[in-house]
């Protein structure tokens, strides 16, 4: 295929978007200034570089046979990796992932061995079509553009590795999450059973394990029953990401497929590793499998281990309910994980129906005065003589820092260390009722590390299998620099930059949070003016792409809701 190359500059609207900016509700058009004064506009809903960023470099590849234009944008920032955009008719935009053939020339390809596999060869249309894509948003209006799409995950007709040439490795980084071992198992078994790959290494202890620790040989026998165990058999760590050292070791060991399982921090690290690999022109596939118990990774429907966490949280909530119910003025307080995103707390609350109040990082709350938490607790105790409160670990941090004047501390990976909201909340409630001379019985339960250390439940095991297989199929087909995950129920290959650019958050003006408020009857802690403003912004967007708008940044949400008295 002949590709004509031209270099262009993208002229973008450089005003910093605010959350109230109506432009966020429709795809921003970026104007591609092409040679010979030719201009073309393509929708680009999320590209919003700060005004200080260097000019975006844009390359255009035209494939005359298919009549397809492909644009790659390099954002000038190492984690804002190249964007690979393929615009189509009616506002269609494929955000594609890199492929070896983009930067390594004259690579041979081979027929996929699955075509002769007894289990798979009978499946009609087992291979995904090169043109299959998955839309990011499925609720659209009649006149709306087709919007952003991702490449559909799955086995491809052609592969770029012979089984005997594959030298794969797997690493797990960051915090634990139920299902890590299942993903490891299914990568090993998928490579072995589907593609006949025999060489798979486990990297011991996270990113630093590449250059400072030993490796373990992984075979289907070694990983046979690990999905029944919590944690990760490979160990994990924080910090220690050194892309040059890591890629040096990848090169020394002749590794050509790297499977990286981890959360937002890990995927940022994976993006940097991929860029270093591409810079060196290596035929090494880098595949990210997003892991986070908090469900804070954007674009994907949900992260593995999340359902397990919600299920396990029920046990703690039940215990809190039993304790509080058994005694007059009983209060059960349960802390759940959720550093910046309150999904576990929200879903555990909705599932339980015994919770009277759920507090999450996205919804600022206050204690004293009208509409405050103390007033609500008093009301519930009057009405019901007991109550259960669920609090996410990242909730109310601004109240704690006001009261403790602590300095900001970071963990080894650069995450802000949170103050422990559970004991603080417990103390504040006790203090309040002591002042009022009202006897209460508060039982505080912190099941956080117990929840994330358990093995995954059945549905998460199936999900982990699909993720692992999608990653294996993508790497074998020569794709690289991608993360896998379900988008509207279909597994897709997602460019790293989409996974790491922002966090998935509970949107407190969406229907799900409204369901929660109506199920608990708790105050919203918002004042009416700000609810009206938030609602105004919720009018159907000009593009009609209605769902999947979870990714507001925390600062903007709290600017929307400064409801502290
Ligand atoms: N911006 C970044 N660039 C490169 N590596 C990073 C970055 N952020 C985190 N990492 C690395 O990713 C790994 C896991 O990060 P961490 O934040 O602890 O967990 P998680 O991946 O679950 O969010 C650590 O080894 C850390 O050094
Ligand atoms: O105690 P650790 O290991 O630092 O982990 C605590 C953090 O890990 C989490 O469970 C999940 O975060 P990640 O998925 O980003 O690792 C958070 O809820 C929590 O704040
Ligand atoms: Mg993280």
Summarize the structure in short:
Pathway: Carbohydrate degradation; glycolysis; D-glyceraldehyde 3-phosphate and glycerone phosphate from D-glucose: step 3/4. The protein has 565 residues and is an alpha/beta fold. The protein contains 16 helices and 22 strands.
Features:
565 residues, alpha/beta, 16-stranded mixed sheet, four-stranded parallel sheet, 16 helices, 22 strands, binds adenosine-5'-diphosphate, binds 1,6-di-O-phosphono-beta-D-fructofuranose, binds magnesium ion, PyroP-dep_PFK_TP0108, nucleotide-binding, ATP_PFK, PKF_sf
What is the element layout, followed by pairings?
Blueprint: E1 4-11, E2 29-33, E3 39-43, E4 57-63, E5 68-74, E6 83-87, E7 92-96, H1 100-103, E8 110-111, E9 133-135, E10 147-152, E11 158-159, E12 168-172, H2 180-195, E13 200-203, H3 209-212, E14 215-217, H4 243-252, E15 257-262, H5 264-279, E16 285-290, H6 306-325, E17 330-336, H7 343-352, E18 357-359, H8 373-384, E19 386-392, H9 397-404, H10 421-435, E20 441-445, H11 448-452, H12 458-476, E21 482-487, E22 490-495, H13 496-500, H14 511-520, H15 528-537, H16 554-560
The structure holds adenosine-5'-diphosphate, 1,6-di-O-phosphono-beta-D-fructofuranose (FBP) and magnesium ion (MG).
Magnesium ion (MG) binds at residues 174, 263-265.
